[in-house]
Amino acid sequence: MTVQFSDPRPGSLEPYWMPFTANRAFKAGPRMFVAADGMHYTTADGRQVLDAMAGLWCVNAGHNAPRIVEAIRTQAGRMDYVSSFQMSHPLAFVLAERIAEHAPAGLDRVFFTNSGSEAVDTALKIARAYHKVSGQANRVKLIGRAKGYHGMGFGGLSVAGIARHRRDFGPLLGDVDHLPHTHDLAHNAFSRGQPAWGAHLADELEAIVQIHDASTIAAVIVEPVTGSGGVLPPPVGYLERLREICARHGILLIFDEVITGFGRLGGPFGSGVLGVTPDLITCAKGMTNGAVPMGGVIASRAVYDAFMSGPDAAVELMHGYTYSGHPLACAAGIGALDTYEQEGLFARGPEICTAWEAAVHQLKGARHVRDIRNIGLLAAVELDSREGAPGARAGEVIDRCFEAGVLVRVAGDNLVLSPPLIITPEQMAQVVETIDAALKAVN
């Protein structure tokens, strides 16, 4: 069957094994989108749905951003592909320089991947290889955090801390340990931005060091703000303590900024907004506004320089992907940065984030709501769980929101919100009113 791009009718639904999806349930009642523009998707039956999730945390500049569309179109007509192994193309170098200009000072070397999952696995490999080339090959252990999400590669899954994601795929990597998460409603319920309580939880890293010895630990990886685990902002002082402990013990600190990068917290990178500089940053999602798959690792000069030894003709890092630095992805990345900069989306971050905080906290006191957390243009509304049916109530709420024209994501008992940076106060009100109505309608 030949299907035109404009034809909303798919052929058989059966051949496509969908990711993170109840395939049988979806195919019995498919939810299809056929177009997107600005803040909205268009469904196959012609309804407009406000995207309160920025696609999947990634469409930060809104859908169909003209500069990005044109950049991809132009590059597709000029050169479709070239390998990045011992050759390249100009846009890869332009994009790397542009990203480095926005990264925290000292992080100015960019390794391109094709997704956040690949970026995380790359960062973990770089961390281990860095210690090996630095003469400390016994530093191999990796420390993640409970409730953390770092993609679905075996490395990222091993350091992640969401049990349901890990359960079916073990055994995972050895030489991994985990910090506790920072979620504690007894102290942090209805916090706005960074909660005041919890910095001491970073000291659990010292306990892990006492168990394993610092000389065996390669890296600690955390999301500056836990995303898929339920939007957990870091307590005031928490990331600073992690930074200090890692530096004191010679452990690399990796920030997974796949979600928090490119404007999500009100600035180019969450590390810059929060004022803590890691050794490595992983990024993806907003890097191309979701238009073309792409990810990357931003490394400090010290990490990069450690590899630049031996014969000049030697490959310093025996790692990469067929599509690393893909021409269309680089064009999309440059178009995305042009959009963020020229439309002032980074600059308006503080203003829009303040309005967002005020809007989502209007749901305090709404039926079933036990907590609201926000930071930047992120928020989670945590619901009371039904006895014996965790997540069921939240699932019903997002279904009602979708029928009412607002796309919301669910993570356990959390309604997760991450709208494009172009959202207006009126659209914020629409999101909040739609959720409130859905909460009133479910038991």
Secondary structure topology:
Blueprint: H1 23-28, E1 33-37, E2 40-43, E3 48-51, H2 54-57, H3 66-78, H4 90-102, E4 107-113, H5 116-133, E5 141-145, H6 154-159, H7 163-166, E6 176-179, H8 185-188, H9 204-212, E7 217-222, H10 238-249, E8 252-256, H11 270-274, E9 280-283, E10 295-300, H12 301-307, H13 327-342, H14 349-360, E11 369-375, E12 378-383, H15 392-403, E13 406-407, E14 409-411, E15 414-417, H16 425-441
Parallel strand pairs: 3-13, 5-6, 5-7, 7-8, 8-9
Antiparallel strand pairs: 1-2, 2-3, 4-10, 9-10, 11-12, 12-15, 14-15
Helix pairs in contact: 3-13, 4-13, 14-16, 15-16
Q: List unreliable stretches of 5+ residues.
A: none
The CATH topology of the largest domain: Aspartate Aminotransferase, domain 2
The top-level CATH class of the largest domain is: Alpha Beta
CATH superfamily of the largest domain: Type I PLP-dependent aspartate aminotransferase-like (Major domain)
Main structural class: alpha/beta
In the CATH hierarchy, what is the architecture of the largest domain at level 2? 3-Layer(aba) Sandwich
Count of alpha/pi helices: 16
**Overall mean confidence score, pLDDT:** 96
Identify the overall geometry. globular
- Describe the sheet with the most strands: 7 strands, mixed
Tally of structural domains = 2
Radius of gyration: 22 Å
Distance between the termini: 44 Å
Helix content: 25-40%
Could you explain the architecture of this structure?
The protein has 443 residues and is of the alpha/beta class. The protein folds into 2 domains: 23-60 and 345-441, Aspartate Aminotransferase, domain 1 (Alpha-Beta Complex); 69-342, Aspartate Aminotransferase, domain 2. The protein is built from 16 helices and 15 strands. It has a 7-stranded mixed beta sheet with strand order 4-10-9-8-7-5-6, sandwiched between helices. Helix 10 links the parallel strand 7 and strand 8. Helix 3 runs antiparallel to helix 13 and helix 4 packs parallel to helix 13. InterPro entries: Aminotrans_3 (IPR005814), Aminotrans_3_PPA_site (IPR049704), PyrdxlP-dep_Trfase (IPR015424), PyrdxlP-dep_Trfase_major (IPR015421), PyrdxlP-dep_Trfase_small (IPR015422). Its cofactor is pyridoxal 5'-phosphate. This is Aspartate aminotransferase family protein.
